[in-house]
Design brief:
26 strands; five-stranded parallel sheet; ten-stranded mixed sheet; alpha/beta; globular; FAD/NAD(P)-binding domain; 2 domains
Length: about 500
């Protein structure tokens, strides 16, 4: 029986409070341990387990769409054979990173942060959480000198799930990948996966081995490229060199290749498009129309989907899967009627229609009693919000591995904390000048980004308020620039 919400008095303030115990949060804690060993800290995790995305998603074939030599932490070499790794392997890697230095002892599970209030008079954040207990919910308050948001950028509670006409009439099962039923039986079933992004191109080949047939129904094509699941050079380096050196060299190799490909796509989009479409057509075989892999937009206006060892194309060639480019008119009792007039028979429909983005982990933030709306703030060096003291957030790349940026952010947070200690400072807040014009936070045309554009903070028209999708520029901006740069204002 649920008991009424109760409240506990705040304990002694922590130095740092990290929100989220996923890839970013565990990494932030490890950086704090290494670079700020005297700091007290805790991690608040709304769920009952660590791992974030890699514990939440349980759909068939769940895997990274970035190589683990860049998605992995800078301080922990990835030594497994597969560079494009499956979800359980990534989750084990994160758990190992948390357990080997005792980070797990600092995690407070089932604590969902609802509000965070900054007091300039006290130079403290007061964070209010809902702690889920077996018999109800308890309200908990925690105070901290610095708040570090590592809760990602999308809602765990709901995905993007558009309501289709006639969906209630469908006699089969409709499933969203974010909430995959534990015992979903799709053996010998007709499956339609609605979507064309990373989740869809993962699900289709994984389900095709067991299902009677899987159809990927896409509103518009996506760039899809095959990539070896294993990195041959990485394995050779691991045999010849110590793990850390082999990992570092592979990481830089992959960072360089990723940046080269992205810049080439930006400078010669038509040529890169021609190559990507040609490779997809070659991989898919003559029986698949190349139009299904020929987007109207330029490469990297949206994320390019990676398929390890060409698994999607292999299932298409085998006839176990197919691609249809069309739009849903309405559901029927036995499938989906398309706007072209064609009907797709289905026992199961998977709506791989995307994520629902949020801002600041859906936390109501106030500064001295004034509500902080994320969409009215500018982002300093991709991590601090204008006029919000002693707060940082982890936000990775759209064109590269998330962790590359998260690692840099954690480094700078530690540098900032150490600078403040050395100078006897209590607060740090980034203040933009009047000559900084707001611009969209992300230059990305993907649906999930566009749907949330009005929620996200803004970047500025000049440094250090610009958000780069470039690791080398961020290294200069984040790792090597001065902490006391005149933009961040400090007080005692």
């Amino acid at each position: 029986m649920a008991h009424p919400a109760s409240s506990t008095a705040p304990a002694a303030p922590l130095d740092v409070l990290i929100v989220g115990a996923g890839l970013s949060g565990i990494g932030a804690a490890r950086h704090l341990q290494q670079r700020c060993p005297g700091k007290t800290f805790a991690l608040l995790e709304g769920r009952a387990a660590l791992g974030g995305t890699w514990d939440l998603f349980r759909y068939p074939g769940i895997r990274s769409d970035s190589d683990m030599h860049t998605l992995g932490y800078s301080f922990k070499p990835w030594t497994a054979a597969k560079a494009i790794a499956d979800g359980p392997s990534i989750l084990n890697y994160i758990r190992s990173a948390a357990e080997e230095t005792g980070v797990t002892q600092h995690i407070r599970y089932r604590h969902t942060v609802k509000r965070a209030a900054w007091s300039s008079a006290d130079a403290l954040w007061t964070v209010e959480c809902e702690q889920q207990l077996d018999d109800g919910v308890k309200t908990v308050q925690i105070q901290a000198r610095f708040l570090y948001l590592c809760s990602g950028y999308y809602s765990y509670a709901e995905g993007h799930a558009p309501e289709f006409a006639g969906q209630a009439d469908f006699q089969g099962q409709v499933v969203h990948p974010q909430f995959w039923p534990e015992k979903l039986d799709y053996a010998n079933k007709q499956v339609v996966v609605i979507g064309s992004g990373a989740t869809a191109v993962t699900l289709v080949p994984s389900m095709a081995d067991t299902a009677a047939h899987v159809t990927m129904l896409q509103r518009s094509p996506t760039y899809v490229i095959s990539r070896p699941a294993e990195d041959g050079l990485a394995q050779r380096l691991q045999r010849l060199l110590p793990d850390r050196l082999a990992y570092a060299l592979t990481r830089w190799k992959n960072v360089g290749l990723g940046m080269f490909f992205f810049q080439l796509a930006r400078r010669r989009p038509n040529k890169v498009k021609q190559v990507l479409v040609h490779l997809a057509k070659k991989q898919a075989g003559g029986q698949v129309d190349a139009a299904h892999f020929t987007p109207k937009y330029k490469p990297w206006d949206q994320r390019v989907c990676v398929v390890p060892d060409g698994d999607l194309f292999r299932q298409l060639r085998a006839g176990k899967a197919s691609v249809v480019t069309d739009t849903v008119d309405h559901f029927t009792p036995t499938g989906i009627k398309l706007n072209s007039g064609k009907e797709l028979k289905a026992d199961i429909v998977v709506t791989a229609t995307g994520l629902k983005l949020n801002a600041l982990g859906d936390i109501a933030v106030t500064v001295d009693g004034r509500a902080c709306n994320a969409n009215q703030t500018l982002v300093y060096r991709g991590m601090m919000l204008s006029d919000v003291p002693n707060l940082a957030m982890a936000f990775g790349y759209t064109n590269a591995s998330w962790t590359l940026k998260a690692d840099l952010t954690a480094e700078r947070v530690c540098r900032l904390l150490n600078h403040m200690d050395a100078q006897g400072l209590r607060t740090a807040v980034a203040r933009p000048g009047n000559d900084v014009e707001p611009q969209p936070f992300l230059d990305f045309s993907s649906g999930y980004v566009q749907r949330a554009a009005s929620l996200l903070p803004k970047q500025g028209s000049r440094r250090p308020w610009q958000v780069y999708q470039n690791y080398l520029l961020d290294m200069l901006s984040i790792r090597y620039s001065r902490i006391a740069d005149g933009v961040v204002q400090f007080s005692r």
